[in-house]
Amino acid sequence: MKRLLPLAVLAALAAQGAINRADFDRAMKPLVDFYQYVNGGWLRTHPIPPEYTSWGTWDDIEANRQQALHALVERAAYRPGPLAPGDPLAAEEKRVGDFYASGMDVAAIQAAGLTPLRPELDAIAGVRTVDDVCREIARQHLIGVSAGFSFGSEQDPAHSTRVIAGAVQAGLGLPDRDYYFRPDPASAALRRQYQAHVEAMLRLAGQTDARAQAAAVMRLETALARASKTMVALRDPVANYHPLRPGELQALTPHFSWSAYFRRLRLAPPAVVDVGQPEFLAAFDDLLASAPAAEWRAYLRWQLLDAFAPDLSDPFANEDFAFFGRALTGTPRQRERWKRVLDAVDGALPQDIGHLYVYTNFSQGARARAQAMIGQIRAALRRRLAVLPWMDAPTRAHAIAKLDAMQVKIGYPDKWIDYAPAGIARDSFALNVLRAQRFAVRRDLDKIGRPLDRAEWDADPSDVNAFYETNLNDIVFPAGVLQPPLFEARADDALNYGGIGAVMGHEMTHGFDDEGRQYDGQGNLDDWWTAWSARQFADRSRRIVRQFDRYIAVDGLHVNGALTEGENIADLGGVKLALAALHAELAQRGLRPPPVDGFTTDQRFFIAFARVWRENTRPEELRLLLATDPHSPSRFRVDGPLSNLPEFYRAFAVPAGAPMRQAPQDRVEIW
What we know:
By secondary structure, the protein is α+β, with helices and mostly antiparallel strands. 54% of the residues lie in helices and 6% in strands. It has 26 helices and 11 strands. The chain is globular. It starts with 6 loop residues before the first helix and ends in a 20-residue tail after the last helix.
């Protein structure tokens, strides 16, 4: 027999998860544009701060996290006297405090100017031959600069228990290869601004022929871009997997000595290297032979300056922001220095700062509640897999086995990274960034040839993020993302499931989206689908591509349905699974909650989901995201999935023919 929640409990839950009607657009109807209906008031009253490209729910959460971290790093950097005896995180506090203090020492940074990079620049000045170019590429790779191409460890897509070496396309200064070729006037103007920016940076570095060098950089990068795959093409895991043995690798790039490269990296020659884009590496090799050494010197100088400019004195940091902030994304003003330095510390010592955050800001109760929700969502997907009409029995068995094998990582790792070998000190901010980069690269390279550690976390536990790792078949929810309004351990179920629950379902569905479905339960690239089930899936995924291709985001520019296909599938699956999990949990607990704040349980669920993605975005940033981001713009992450859901139609009485209700022939249902 179902029971109603006691009035006292309802009052407490309402206080913790009350829906603010001022956030709504009272002039909009939910059957026309649900995103605007739920968020219109909030969007009007939350303009983008001048130092940001966008502002939304996730930024609110990030701001809360930053305030918590700011208190931690200020305390670590400046509290008087020695650390308390027996402090369990004394070493982490000292590293974080030293790094942060070096970044806040503006006088020392201004006085140092380009000095921290002088050894690297002097080495570049000595480049005369092809071997010299190769030497400097290896030297830059050791400090995390992806000049020419990117190289590091990766889990073998076809043999998931081993770690191999991988080489992929890289080396561009603009965000994507298409920026070098778009013929429209705005893109042409941006290329001119970019070349002028390269020139300005080289001039700041003392190069008297900076204009000629900037032109050389543009020629080399354009040639590399021409050989690069598009963002859509990079989404095909089979087409981007080419394991080559040493002889095959050397034959692909006759002018680039891989044996010398590995020696310079202090790396035993790998048995196999996965070359993601062989055509790109072949074109890179042609450039080694054909481009003059002077052009390579200019390119290598620029790659180095571009990587470290934000960490140098004001002339470099300000010029970097002038292009990548104002020109590219339309951001009027830089963020406060403490925020930029905090980001640098977070990026360099993510598990040190994450450990401090978890120790002071995360509860075991929150972890347990999140684990229980994940369990409900997994059960909902399992029930769904058991009855899918378009999946045959052999494919169904593999899908259920993959779901059962999926690992869940919530909150923080059981084993933390030790950054002591990085050698962080208070002497120089830029040197600390360089030291941390060198440590991270070394740690990454040392994984090659070793068995995979499936328990390892690559994430900062304080991150406001969540993700699915295809090769590991696991989903990760750091402590930082488990915050209101996405999640509150004591809040009512409808808001939790509509918030973090939909995100959990989203990440779980990634294991079965157009990319994830190509991997098995152990994370191996393996086609476990029968031909019939694969055709059924392809038909449904094509329909979601067509749906999102229709959406216009800004200046007449459409969403790229092929680029955003996987995320759109995950958004649709995530909200559907989270709602099913909510219903199952309430039924198991015998609960039938009455309306709260004037909304039914299902209505509160969908309102919470719409709040997740509310965001104001600058048009310049939106244009950039349409070209490079596999996620659809926020409005369509809400209206797109919900317009396919009969449960949503029922909750808000959406009639046939309304904008928020897809016609039956267009409706998409996958997972």
